[in-house]
Design a protein that fits this description.
CATH superfamily of the largest domain in chain A: Aldehyde Dehydrogenase, Chain A, domain 1
CATH topology of the largest domain in chain A: Aldehyde Dehydrogenase, Chain A, domain 1
Largest sheet of chain A: 7 strands, parallel
Helix content of chain A: 40-55%
Oligomer: homodimer
Structural class of chain A: alpha/beta
Number of helices of chain A: 14
Order of helices and strands of chain A: HHHHHEEEHEHEHEHEHEHEHEEHEHEEEE
Largest interface: A-B, 65 and 64 residues
Shape of chain A: globular
Number of strands of chain A: 16
Chain lengths: ~425, ~425
Amino acid sequence: MNANTSPVVTTSLAETMHLLGRAAREAASVLARCTGEQRAAVLGDAAATLRARCADILAANALDLEAADRNLIAPAMRDRLLLDETRVEAMAVALEQIRALPDPLGAVLADWTRPNGLRIQRVRVPLGVIGIIYESRPNVTADAGALCLKSGNAVILRGGSESWHSSRAIHECLVAALRANALPEAAIQMVPTPDRAAVGHLLAGLGGTVDVIVPRGGKNLIARVQQDARVPVIGHLEGLCHVYVHTAADPEMAREVVFNAKMRRTGICGAAETLLIDAACASALLPPIAEPLLAAGCELRGDEAACAIVPGMTPAAAEDWRTEYLDAVLSVRVVGDLDEALAHIREYGSGHTESIISADPVAAERFLAELDSAILLHNASTQFADGGEFGMGAEIGIATGRIHARGPVGVEQLTSFKYVVRGAGQTRP
Amino acid sequence: MNANTSPVVTTSLAETMHLLGRAAREAASVLARCTGEQRAAVLGDAAATLRARCADILAANALDLEAADRNLIAPAMRDRLLLDETRVEAMAVALEQIRALPDPLGAVLADWTRPNGLRIQRVRVPLGVIGIIYESRPNVTADAGALCLKSGNAVILRGGSESWHSSRAIHECLVAALRANALPEAAIQMVPTPDRAAVGHLLAGLGGTVDVIVPRGGKNLIARVQQDARVPVIGHLEGLCHVYVHTAADPEMAREVVFNAKMRRTGICGAAETLLIDAACASALLPPIAEPLLAAGCELRGDEAACAIVPGMTPAAAEDWRTEYLDAVLSVRVVGDLDEALAHIREYGSGHTESIISADPVAAERFLAELDSAILLHNASTQFADGGEFGMGAEIGIATGRIHARGPVGVEQLTSFKYVVRGAGQTRP
């Protein structure tokens, strides 16, 4: 199928989507039984195909960019949509990196023998069928498809309509690689229409064929997914991350970690949004922490005490403590002690990632033990909240739910397990 | 509050339920930080209180039984509702057994150090707030409350209206033990009204305060929960378990395991519902397998080939292969080979538990590897599908979903984890 022809949809959308689900379920059953070498070979071939078809992909991308320019989309969004040879090469390299990860499947996670001689093993298996709903980054098509395949799952991809042609061109490369390795093409499917109603069908689970939904995108997308999904969702709503500078913080470390946590990249979910600092050290430490932030163009919104210490701050409003800026803005609050910091984070945090800067091991251990965010750091930047930085290889996102996966979601987190029990004729008394 | 007075509900049901949720969330935060000794002490005290208040509990149970008799409920249901001194003692013993389980919290599930020196640990934490919806077994009030407390979770219990007085009397014992140990009473709450609309509020998540719903009951209850829940559900819909007698089965083992898998207890989810037997051994093995079943009053519903071999069988209808009898009925089908058995189980199974009886290790390993039910057994009875039999201690049920927990759900399965990362000032490049 050529990248810029529309699909022929002869049946109703509901039928089309249910057929997609059934095909995915059948493909999942084949994937669960194929070898890790087969799955890896597909990823290697997909990387080669992406490189070989780079011109086709860029042509498809040009169609998306033309439409984007006609619709006057925001520059940041256009940049996310834009592909060039370097970005296509980066996608191919990412596929090769996922290919090189250890095969997560078949691992024996636990192994014990009962007094009656039954030997019980917990063995890792794929989740089954994963629905991925994302916005307009075309590279997610390659990344998400590859992570699901690596973990033995069939996937149904539903990308943003803005990246329709680009995503289809990339998807065709993945399908060609599946075909070349005699694996079912339905292992990686794209919803064959930009119709938004398709998302509703996917969220409803396509007649019980979808095991889990992974949303990748902004707050509105994820809120809709969490509201409408009838199948489990792995994802995060917000990354309202805190850095707490404790009175026993090393001043230089505090300055560097806060700057990095806020400014390394402001648009990622692990970026710090609120700085809490102990009153006992605020007059000494806040000015040197604030200075490089202000110099780098970061707006600081402080409570009364913070504004009194640093002249360049603007007063924070109540909603600032609940705001994930994803921008060069940081709210700053002076707290009385560790307990007040913990209470603030419990009240306003989103359960994503928090960091304490302190040379006091007792304070640090309380912070790590008493908070229950997915990721808690001591003396390190919140921007380490990332599957690659955790050594998990590529990730499909950071989960803040408490079921199944929390923190970075890599290939291991896209798996389930089953119990295998070996006996010698045991019956239960 | 006396066990047989109705609660005073002065606010709307929605308000009442949301207050319950908020109180549970606050209690969960306290529970997550208290020690395993404190949680264990509550369970010991609760067992003692159950014994001390046995007469009160039986008096409350008598009220439920009177209402049940007025409503002419089925004898099996009346038996599930009935308490006596032996059953109250059994509840107390169950609490002590849960008390004695190892504390699941705080365990370090993984521990690694990155090249940049960051040390990352995955540490087990509670799920948070669990909603348990169950039918009219009063003992579930004690069991479920205790399992959730042991794993550090706050729980909101919603039992069947038939066991209203009994469950409240048992619940009061748990609350007294929480109070005696200075833990929040809201750690174990009961929905304070038998109004069925309360279930809808619970399934909607009580304003984001409920982390997971665990249903315990029949197919209708679980189907409603899976349909209406807006929070994740851990549970199983059906246990349509298969035993497959392979051509290389030991005849005596096949006879004993099939009998036990069907007849030990017919009403539990791990009871076998369908027997598959290879054509090559059916004429030799099916008569000795069928004989003790028929003698014990089990109805056998066979396909044509099975009926031709065993005269006492009735012909199976198409819906038999999809029916979880939970009774002394077994469907029997003669299959051509392992592949046909696997295809049958994939088509009709509910993903709960399946067993192969075979002396051929190649056939057995294919069965264990290629099926993806939660529990797969070789040469053992499907009735081992049980947390106690797995060595997990008490269980809250068997999960057949693929997210979070599968198979027996014990205290470890009622937990989540968080990442604790210790650094020395690392910033992300």
